[in-house]
């Protein structure tokens, strides 16, 4: 049978924690994050030395992010890099002005270090938590450490290139037609 002293001690501890618990919770500061998950840190290429030129800009202004892509594997990799911006208004509107190395797709040689610089223009005001994002072919994305950037000013509205929308719609339609015509048993 359970000792009465043990029961009294257990009840005493429960009552004490109930009284002190809420004040202990207030002693610790509240912390928030934007949900970047651990798997977004690549095991294939590490983003080192990510540096942002500014922490605050006005819409229409440019800022640059630079750093190094460090290959962690013994084979060449192909990928493309951009910026990822997380904000409360879900705007995330940035325009890429310049890339170094240039081009949409880059090669990262095996066990090499590739310096990069990306210049972007702010198009929509918000508080963004920005990262360099490197998307490696057949592997997926990886993010740099990140920096908070505050954008003020009026939104810049870019015209919609309707010719591109029409062209893409035609290509998608042709793809569906070919799929339906050649594999009708897999579509149903």
From TrEMBL:
GO molecular function terms noted in the UniProt entry: ammonia monooxygenase activity
Annotated keywords: Monooxygenase, Oxidoreductase
InterPro entries given in the database record: NH3_CH4_mOase_B (IPR006833), NH3_CH4_mOase_suB_N (IPR023301), TonB_box_CS (IPR010916)
EC number, UniProt record: 1.14.99.39
Official protein name in the record: Ammonia monooxygenase subunit B
Keyword Zinc-finger: no
Designated gene of the protein: amoB
Enzyme class: oxidoreductase
Keyword Cytoplasm: no
